[in-house]
Amino acid sequence: MTTDIEAAAQQADVFLAGKKKADDTAFMLGRVLAEMGIRVGDTDSWPLLKGRASLSGEPSVFLGTVPLPTAKKLIDALIYAESVKRGAPHVRGCGHDA
Questions:
Q1: Are 77 and 85 within 8 A, CB to CB?
Q2: CA-CA distance, 53 to 58, in Å (whole number)?
């Protein structure tokens, strides 16, 4: 049987492990966005990106509010990547207004 202190310490360890995983994921996403010319922390590009975790240790990444031009840029990049993956020719603009 664990004491309340041991249980709290275990819960804290689980939370911190989830938070570290979320922070690492947010960092890597930030690096990918930087490679695309999207600046995290810039209100006109991508204002906020944070790693979070629930008390159960489930990691998540809070994306914040992303401006529409940035969202369109990401959509175009994802569609392009999928078309390359499938070997299909890429249609420029993917139907989005710039």
A1: no
A2: 5
